[in-house]
Amino acid sequence: MRDLTSESQIEVLSAADGVRRRHWSDADKIRIVEESFSGHRQVSATARLHGISRSLLTVWRRQYRNGELSGAGSPAFIPLTGSAEPPAMASPVPVPPNPEARVEIALRNGRQLAVPANVDPVALARLLSVVDGR
Fold this sequence. Notes:
Layout: H1 26-37, H2 43-50, H3 54-65, E1 102-106, E2 112-116, H4 121-131
Antiparallel strand pairs: 1-2
Helix pairs in contact: 1-2, 1-3, 2-3
């Protein structure tokens, strides 16, 4: 007859055995975040496509908007076009006495633009139309 004593089997798991957390470079994060902003794709669909959680992608999007990801707020070259005729503008704003005064403009696409307070209004209007994407 067979002995029916049970022998328990123990399996020891260590961190070296398993897959560690993935490390995403800032360039990868920026690429995924910009993909989530393009088109009508939902955040959850983009997160699922790349195998990350929706909450992680939401955190990356906030970091991108705040300029916390390297490369997100760094200067870049963008195509700039200008028209021969400037748009009709109201009377120019008087120049403040401080030549180092700056104006910060928050755009609808989440970007922020800092310009000198004595910037030419026509040039600013052209720049805003390109940077804001309108």
